[in-house]
Amino acid sequence: MVTRLSHLFLRTLRDDPSDAEVTSHKLLVRAGYVRRQSPGIFAWLPLGLRVRHKIEDIIREEMVAAGAQEVLLPALLPREPYEATNRWTEYGDGMFRLQDRKGSDYLLAPTHEEMFALLVKDLYGSYKDLPVTLFQIQDKYRDEARPRAGLLRGREFTMKDAYSFDLTDEGLERSYQVMRDAYERIFARLGLEYVIVKADAGAMGGSKSEEFLHPIGVGEDTFVRSAGGYAANVEAYVTPVPDALPIDGQPEPVTLPSADTPTIDTLVAHANAVAPRDGAPWTAADTLKNVVLALTHLDGTREVVVVGLPGDREVDLKRAEVAFAPAEVEAAGDDDFKRHPGVFVKGYIGPQVLGAESDSGIRYLVDPRVVEGTAWVTGANERGVHVTGLVMGRDFTADGVAEVSDVRAGDPAPDGSGPLETARGMEIGHVFQLGRKYAEALDLKVQDENGKLATVTMGSYGIGVTRILAILAEAHNDDKGLAWPKEVAPFDVHVVATGKDQVAYDLATTLIDTLEGERYDVVYDDRPKVSPGVKLRDAELLGVPVVVVAGRNAADGVVELWDRRSGERRDVPVAELLEAVRAI
Amino acid sequence: MVTRLSHLFLRTLRDDPSDAEVTSHKLLVRAGYVRRQSPGIFAWLPLGLRVRHKIEDIIREEMVAAGAQEVLLPALLPREPYEATNRWTEYGDGMFRLQDRKGSDYLLAPTHEEMFALLVKDLYGSYKDLPVTLFQIQDKYRDEARPRAGLLRGREFTMKDAYSFDLTDEGLERSYQVMRDAYERIFARLGLEYVIVKADAGAMGGSKSEEFLHPIGVGEDTFVRSAGGYAANVEAYVTPVPDALPIDGQPEPVTLPSADTPTIDTLVAHANAVAPRDGAPWTAADTLKNVVLALTHLDGTREVVVVGLPGDREVDLKRAEVAFAPAEVEAAGDDDFKRHPGVFVKGYIGPQVLGAESDSGIRYLVDPRVVEGTAWVTGANERGVHVTGLVMGRDFTADGVAEVSDVRAGDPAPDGSGPLETARGMEIGHVFQLGRKYAEALDLKVQDENGKLATVTMGSYGIGVTRILAILAEAHNDDKGLAWPKEVAPFDVHVVATGKDQVAYDLATTLIDTLEGERYDVVYDDRPKVSPGVKLRDAELLGVPVVVVAGRNAADGVVELWDRRSGERRDVPVAELLEAVRAI
């Protein structure tokens, strides 16, 4: 097949679109692959759709090879199943909701666990029917607060989502592994670097989940990994808990007037000067910082909680979101403080007056490092006064543990595999062992070998099709434009004829016949009145992996051959062209 | 490729689903092709998706062969473009509307004229860029009042919609013809009988439109055709207008006391008895029936109008909808009559007191047959009194003509090609010459040869993908199940192994190897503990065109071969199987 640029619905742009923040967005719009229609919602132009179909085909092939069966569920879904699993509420503002003409509630599917569970319930009833894994390639909708980064985070986007159904936990483990393996093959075929990290199952529920992250600076996820093989999204990182220390024999707390210690550092220096301890000096890690957070629960009630963490740590709000889900969390504001008059002495908050059982009734949670027997420098709940040697389990207690501290390079991997490094990545796949949460909510049971009803256990496996396209664009470009891997390129070869001499066009036509004979998919820049400069710039921008230019040496039967990805360009006699193209 | 029934996500049903009214709906659900998810919204199971993809591929191939380029626009669209063309309002309750988290209005696309026009405006600016025809295969949404008939009229459904853009009317005519020809090829490849009928452009606007109707009893459209080649949807039928008659010399109207004439027939008999006219006797076609209708305009105002039509005709409400669009029309109710006290004497309404210029101010419209000089028997606006010989243009006038009378077999074709026959059909394709309505509303202009801005003219071309699948099921079945044409069948060959004898299964496996070697797509019923009766019934229900049964004669190397569509079944030695399969 040959596509003529003079006919192709395409308009390349010199300048970056004003609303584009990331490279892939800029290039995909400039090169005429997509156009923005409204915030986070895009139209697919012919070039973009070609790349997209290739990505979908690779995913589809590997899914089928892994034994998954393709189905297609609607995007417009009734409220009731999502009500049963509570996600109608839990999704909050992130879900598009609407009513039909009769006033019935509907939603635009953000993901399809409920409907797949109901479909299997509808058709299957026996353990003999299981396991089964179903998938679809389908549009999804999420009403992002800040749709940005082009296709990397859209409001209408395309996913391959798969769901496995098993009778036993071991079966789920197997089905999960099969999908995980398929994902590795898919990303390998796409030439897409990935790291598999432990992930927080989050709003999806379930017992185990892993993310496939593509390491990339514009990534929205931070992950950590050790040389010894541990890898996790920071939201899933679990702080190693130190051993408890003996309380007996520890000195009593000492009151520390501390009016002039505006920072942790000055407080630590002051404590070491005025109230030093035996053994080691106080460090920032020995101060107990008490951060006031405000939670908004699903029922709309607002709760103030305090989290105590070592003074050398900060609260990571994304980790806090996971810790307190499904409640929403933010720093407490003036109104929150006002609702608890007299409790909080700003800058001098200490745990002594906190706790669900205390007079204040305010829940007090601590970082996992705050174990029994640890001694702390912290506030005395009095302006200008701290206290040193306040011992956990003796002088104060906590209502629980909260994993809200930030995770840093150098922190230990929880499995003892060494210090962590941190990196940023973008989620390109996610595999979940959902377990029985959805099946229980929707009453998905089958008869087991003994004729008894048993609840099915589910897995859920997602790949962002349109996001992958953007990440491939992000990973494969240079300052001149896109440079697609051949597996997903919109065409195999881009033939350009330049100049006013008919011989170049005639040569191009001959070459295209040859290339078509070898089943190459060719785009031909046959535009008659476009300058060579524009044609060559467009060839660079469009990013087809092989470019053949029939220009000034056409009369001698010589063309210029570009390897768009390596950047190599050389003159090739026509007789050797096919071989040279094959080599790229 | 072989698909094993023991693995396939499929459950066939013995009984028709309770909510299914039409055959295709019953069979597609029973045979496990689709499942209903909510009213008018379906999930596609593996078999259904296979057929659907085959239909899509045929459509896509023919679109590309006709020079159309594939793109993909979003389903979730902003309000503004639809506001510009007034369709945000005109679509009424039929459109799904929603708001995002910021309160901006969106819709789920019922069709995409606006967005395609804006896309071309966005990318193109010169006459040199035209013509261009774009298409997509995409989900559409319409909030039907009574979703029913399964996939024949859904609320979420899939269409191929194409749009052409030209500078000139002649260009549009050419682009239209190219698409029309492509549609003929598509329906020919799908083996789908069709009639091309003149259609009402309706809410789409535009100058010319034709429908591809598949003649079928459950069809929602009534069309008429003549032996001489005229064909039109009844909504597009234009009544031939008789010549006006001379008024001079016609007798004056005669008052006709008519208290005891409850029907047209009794009135006619009474008139001929009491007030006969010279020449021909009065007939039902000479009575003028005045029907009171109520229009609801887009701005919500309600208007009462009266339509005068020959007494042997009825008002066809679908034709009335077209005549009065975009207003909605229904029979006037008591409330409407109350708003015009003293005007309407039920059973005796006559045109003498009607008309926009009359005291009542009520618009009076007439059937096209009510031309100047025609004389009528009609009401005298007084209980128990009619009048005969009331002459149009002398004794009463009208504010205009309304095409609301029903069209009947035997009526003349407007082009003089003979009497009409009527039939029912289902719309499978629709081609429109939209003209400049959308381009004007959205300011889609390009520079013409002289550098002046010229408004583009558009065409719009739709095929219902999912509806076609249902119609194919409707057209190809028998009392045992589906019987797909081979072009769209989910598999080429259905191999069944029956009995407890391993030899049948071994033979089946060998046959499948042979069939796969010839690139046939095979489904294999390998289910070990399912009875032969169930397997054979499922083979009939699923409707794969060729069925091969390895059963009792397997040991002799003989299988039973079914041609599912002709119903022929015969024993075939294995050695001759391939040839016999090819012959079907």
From TrEMBL, chains A, B:
Keywords: Aminoacyl-tRNA synthetase, ATP-binding, Cytoplasm, Ligase, Nucleotide-binding, Protein biosynthesis. Signal peptide: none annotated. The keyword Nucleotide-binding applies. InterPro entries: aa-tRNA-synt_IIb, aa-tRNA-synth_II, aa-tRNA-synth_II/BPL/LPL, Anticodon-bd, Anticodon-bd_dom_sf, Pro-tRNA-ligase_IIa, Pro-tRNA-synth_IIa_bac-type, Pro-tRNA-Synthase_IIa_type1. It is found in: Cytoplasm. One of its GO terms (molecular function) is proline-tRNA ligase activity. Its EC number is 6.1.1.15. Residues 48-485 form the Aminoacyl-transfer RNA synthetases class-II family profile domain. It comes from the Bacteria. Gene3D superfamilies: Anticodon-binding domain, Bira Bifunctional Protein, Domain 2, YbaK/aminoacyl-tRNA synthetase-associated domain. It catalyses: tRNA(Pro) + L-proline + ATP = L-prolyl-tRNA(Pro) + AMP + diphosphate. The keyword ATP-binding applies. PANTHER family: MITOCHONDRIAL RIBOSOME PROTEIN L39/PROLYL-TRNA LIGASE FAMILY MEMBER, PROLINE--TRNA LIGASE. Consists of three domains: the N-terminal catalytic domain, the editing domain and the C-terminal anticodon-binding domain. Homodimer. Belongs to the class-II aminoacyl-tRNA synthetase family. ProS type 1 subfamily. Catalyzes the attachment of proline to tRNA(Pro) in a two-step reaction: proline is first activated by ATP to form Pro-AMP and then transferred to the acceptor end of tRNA(Pro). As ProRS can inadvertently accommodate and process non-cognate amino acids such as alanine and cysteine, to avoid such errors it has two additional distinct editing activities against alanine. One activity is designated as 'pretransfer' editing and involves the tRNA(Pro)-independent hydrolysis of activated Ala-AMP. This is Proline--tRNA ligase. It comes from Curtobacterium citri. The gene is proS.
